[in-house]
Amino acid sequence: MKRFMLMHKDIVVSIFEMDGNNVTAWYIPKSANAQNHMPLPLKRIAHYINGGYIEEETPKAYKINEEGIFYLEQWLSDRAIPINRDNIQKYVRNKNTIEFMLNNNSASLTDCYWTKEINENIDWNRVKLYGKSSIDKLQVISHNSDCGETYSGINATLGGQLEKYWYYSYTKGTAPNLMLAKRTNINDSILNIREVIASKIYELQGYENYCKYNYIRNTYGQIVGCKCRAFTDEQLELITAYDLLEEYGYTQADGIYELIINLAHKYGANITEVRYQLDIQTLVDYLITNRDRHQNNIGFLRNPDTLQIIKIAPIFDSGSSAFMEGVLPLGVENTTVHNLYNTEMQCLQSVYNIKSLNISKLPDIKWVRNEFRKANNFNEYTVNNYLQLYISKIEYLKSRG
How far is CA 353 from CA 124, 358, 369, in A? Predict the structure, then answer.
């Protein structure tokens, strides 16, 4: 049995006990500051603390019952790298993923949450991965190349099925850039190609709030991943649309699209900016058949001290999911997706302004064809199918505009 403190920078937001993978006890301080700084999905318990979640109460804390503990276990599980991660044993080395995460203080480069055992004498400045001191933790050993394009160290909190890791990229005479790399199987290079096509579309649209992706290749020249610059730092932490919705138990509510906009505005986001980005993002996802724009793939950047949203996060993860490739139905009007809604048409119907995407400013069809041809498992029949779907969707949006 181990006892841990869940921290937000140097604020203790809760205390919990673990027995293996299971939370056996959870305590939430009565302090308003502690509750305000809880991860948004766990603030749900604080909001509804009198709704049947209390097992015991002391002058300083609530002991949460088994029903409430479920939400903490879910949050820990979501924070840990998933058990279906490619090359999982390269990370956890026969430990379970939650144990691996807790052993590494649950530290992340996307937010300021972390954990420590109750008797550990450490603080945020020692644990945080931000800044040059984190280079050793990421095991970057050369300033002459992007050596992080192969596995580069401890990443105990990066989600998703694809192998991911942080590394520093060095350009002579400039400060190191923190990068995020995603690696795919040889036969899944289309996921990386979609990221690059999406980047090109946003570039031509003149829309700057997106992650610019570039290919990662192996020694044979094959595409094995993609990379982009990080967009979080110690003053800007990521919260997702899922976080905003789960704070009030709205993840299954109707009207998710508008609900995300309104909940983000509650924390200070600009409604016009959020709606425009959701619109253009939805339209680009439709064109490139990104079938994986779920609630965790929409983000906002907030100040971790004031807890106010500063801006919507750059558009990221446009490459879709390997699990969705080939899933039927697939077409111009009836494609099933794992997005905010279940079909592409439902997603398009939520768009406020279909003219958010300027159809006259899209990549040249020849350029798009050449990108599709870079697939490792390239054949002309497959390329023509991808390209025809892309062209047909352009025509469909023209008809709607």
Answer: 43, 11, 28
Q: Which of these ranges, 84-88, 95-99, 370-374, 394-398, has the smallest mean pLDDT?
A: 84-88
* CA separation for the pair 103, 304 (Å, rounded): 24
Cα–Cα distance measured from residue 360 to residue 363, given in angstroms and rounded to the nearest whole number: 9
DSSP class of 192? H
Q: Which of 236, 205, 374 is nearest to 309 (CA)?
A: 236
- Residues 391, 331: contact at Cβ < 8 Å? no
| Tens-digit pLDDT profile for residues 238-257 | 999 999 999 999 999 999 99
List, edge to edge, every strand of the sheet that includes 223-229.
163-169, 177-183, 223-229, 214-217
Euclidean distance between CA atoms 95 and 101, whole angstroms: 10
Q: Do the Cβ atoms of 184 and 322 come closer than 8 Å?
A: yes
Q: Where along the chain do its domains lie?
A: 1-79, 237-400
Tell me which CATH code domain 237-400 carries: 1.10.1070.20
pTM (predicted TM-score): 0.94
| Segment 261-270, tens digit of pLDDT | 999 999 999 9
**b/e 256-274 (16+ beta carbons within 10 angstroms → b):** bbebbbebbeebebeeeeb
**Tokens representing residue 127 in the block:** 């644990």
CA 59 and chain centroid, separation: 38
Angle between helix 189-205 and 365-372 (nearest 10): 160
Nearest to 140 by CA among 106, 178, 108: 178
Q: Which of 310, 163, 177, 294 is nearest to 240 (CA)?
A: 294
